[in-house]
Amino acid sequence: MSGSQDEIIPLSDADAVLVAFGVGPANKAYQRWRTEYGFRMVDFADVLDESHFVLNVDWREWLQDAVDQILTQLATIGVAAEADLGDDGERGEFAADGRREAIKFVPSDDDNFDQVIRSVNSVIQAKGQYRKLRYSEGTDGWSYGLLPCESWKELESKAGATVDLLFMSNF
What we know:
Elements: E1 8-10, H1 11-20, H2 28-33, E2 38-40, H3 41-48, E3 54-58, H4 63-76, E4 81-84, E5 91-96, E6 99-104, H5 113-124, E7 128-133, E8 141-148, H6 149-166, E9 167-168
Antiparallel strand pairs: 1-2, 3-8, 4-5, 5-6, 7-8, 7-9
Helix pairs in contact: 1-6
């Protein structure tokens, strides 16, 4: 995780990020971890993970399960996408907006899920983007946040330093 686990994300920035990701103050994790100053970095991860726009992938993940979640998330932001992973469910094509990209994730091949997300991003780039959550670095999985392009721009204008602290757009 980038930064100290005790680092505080200011409440105004935290709220901007959480609103963009559809997590509000009524959320139990929000209520549990919020302080008068904001959120400790380590606690903020628990709150943000409550979002339907965060994709968490374990190193043992079956590609089909992750792709099903990606398709659902993309549909929520208005991106019509499809995937054909063939019979084994470990490799195939991902398509949206008339573009296609090959995808593959086989845990026994030591594949990195970042490559799958880079392929997805390349076909959805006009409408949305997944960004890698820095707090997943050094873990046995991967975490990404999805927002429409306009929402990323708005969020960067409201809380740019916090967005940079939390997310990687180039990974």
